[in-house]
Amino acid sequence: MISFDIVLLWLDLIGVFFFAVSGSLLAARKQFDFVGSILLASIAALGGGVIRDIVINAGPPIAFTNPAYLAPPLLAALLVYYLFSSVQRFTSLLTLFDAGGLALFCITGTLKAISAGMNPVAAILLGVTTGVGGGLLRDITANEIPTLFNNRDIYALPAFVGAGLTTLLWHLGLFSGLTACVIAGVVFTFRVTAWRRGWYVPLAVRGWHRAGTGGGAISGARD
Amino acid sequence: MISFDIVLLWLDLIGVFFFAVSGSLLAARKQFDFVGSILLASIAALGGGVIRDIVINAGPPIAFTNPAYLAPPLLAALLVYYLFSSVQRFTSLLTLFDAGGLALFCITGTLKAISAGMNPVAAILLGVTTGVGGGLLRDITANEIPTLFNNRDIYALPAFVGAGLTTLLWHLGLFSGLTACVIAGVVFTFRVTAWRRGWYVPLAVRGWHRAGTGGGAISGARD
Amino acid sequence: MISFDIVLLWLDLIGVFFFAVSGSLLAARKQFDFVGSILLASIAALGGGVIRDIVINAGPPIAFTNPAYLAPPLLAALLVYYLFSSVQRFTSLLTLFDAGGLALFCITGTLKAISAGMNPVAAILLGVTTGVGGGLLRDITANEIPTLFNNRDIYALPAFVGAGLTTLLWHLGLFSGLTACVIAGVVFTFRVTAWRRGWYVPLAVRGWHRAGTGGGAISGARD
User: Fold this and answer.
1) What is the pLDDT of residues C8-36, one digit of tens each?
2) Is A85–C207 a contact, with Cβ atoms under 8 angstroms apart?
3) A19, A166, B30, B124: which has the fewest C-beta neighbours closer than 10 Å?
4) What are the pLDDT digits (tens) for C80-110?
5) A21: Cβ contacts below 8 Å, ≥ 6 apart
6) Interface residues on B facing C, Cβ-Cβ cutoff 8 A
7) What is the ipTM of this complex?
């Protein structure tokens, strides 16, 4: 029988791979070189988990101690190097891989915080931080306005939903490999649907509107 | 009788609120949405303390473990959402709230470092880091040149004064709620006066002058 | 007889000084003021080591606890303030000092990781992180595209070579003050030669070329 820790490790590594691809794709768009592609893949893929492990404060981050975490960024940089010229739909691909990483990381981050004995609110916060942290570091490092703050998209809310559901199901004793997949599916679908259909939340000040849009909140299709 | 820890917690929470408002105001100016406003408020408000707690290395940062620290960013984002359209003096407000946070954080950051057993120099450094860290992360995240490096303003010096006075009075046995308020007043007044009167320090190279100004150092009024 | 720890401390402090000068030079170019020059020197000089110590997670970072680490940034800011107007070759100087810091930090960072009991792969990663971290934080803080991702230069590879050689020689029992100097010389020479001769690695996507260049990889002189 497969242990829970092994499942968690694999979910985490798949999330690492998804974010690594998003980093290499951004490196390609920014015309970085191949070494820069590996580095930006590593920052995107491992940054959220490193912040999580530093906050939990229980020894060196797993990204440094377990060499398995280095394989996904290398693989991602190679895939983008060899395959990207034939798959040019850059923004869509980046968003889909980023959403996959977000869906897995808000779950694994929350679980690691719970395992470390943190309270439910802290576990949710840390799950969200793990989910959005790598993408935030990726965008800051590449000198872009972070996707997290792009007002045309809903990005942090799906992470909150995922971290909240994980914490809830855990404390109800209902968390399992199956429910983890359901949560990941919900988060991924929420994020991608919001992106495709142009859902958004109101601006930071009541009564202000987006430039070039006349619509209300949570409505309208992406132009 | 109110314990010293309670006073310290409240001073810290008020500082958190001040920086949170500065974050939400910047989110408003950058046209971020309401969720982005909460997130930038959280980064500005909690970033300095999280860095401080990670450096002290004595368990997870308090911003993650004590849910009370989440209230100020939510409150700040709501206040800016409902009230800002009627109070449009953006830059002044942001600078005043930022100065309030700076004044309180350089004190509470220094005290936490002293409590953790760090030496006086480390306590001053950590107080300054706590004071300027949140604003620095806020500006970097929002892709702005950090206020800390804006050469028209004196920003870090007041934090050094506050952290230095706190360390000095503590080691003389004169630190109390009253002297804490005096220090906060000195730091706030120094920062705001420097901003209003356009005080500045020389540029990084001797003999170089600011574009468009002919004046010497620490002189001249804001145009 | 001089102990190994003393040699390591001095190598580290000299690396700190080199990166501090690079920070003050960038502050000069960005027209920051003298306080900003001290702060950017500190971020460039101490940032990599602070990240390293936080990742190792064995107490507060040495940059906070040992006041000796504050001297190099102050000295660097003073030197740039008084001497820079007569030495105007900005980019060359910054690159040379940055390369010196890189050469020393990838060695000392690796050694500290080994001393902390981390595995060889983690030691190499942490050496590279220490070497490139300060410069990365310096460039992000100053709102520049990081040198690390500048596709005209080879920057991370020399750090990998230095960290790899340090780990290898250590485990072979051949690491000494002499071999440390040899490694530092190799890293510095590799980095500076790559910069002067315009060596580069391929872009992140196969078949894509740099704007304005027709050449292959690792060839051609800087125009």
Assistant:
1) 888 899 999 999 999 999 998 888 889 88
2) yes
3) B30
4) 998 876 666 677 888 899 999 999 999 999 9
5) A41, A76, A79, A80, A93, A97
6) 54-57, 116, 118-119, 121-122, 125-126, 136, 140, 143-146, 148-149, 151, 154-157, 200-208, 210-211
7) 0.84
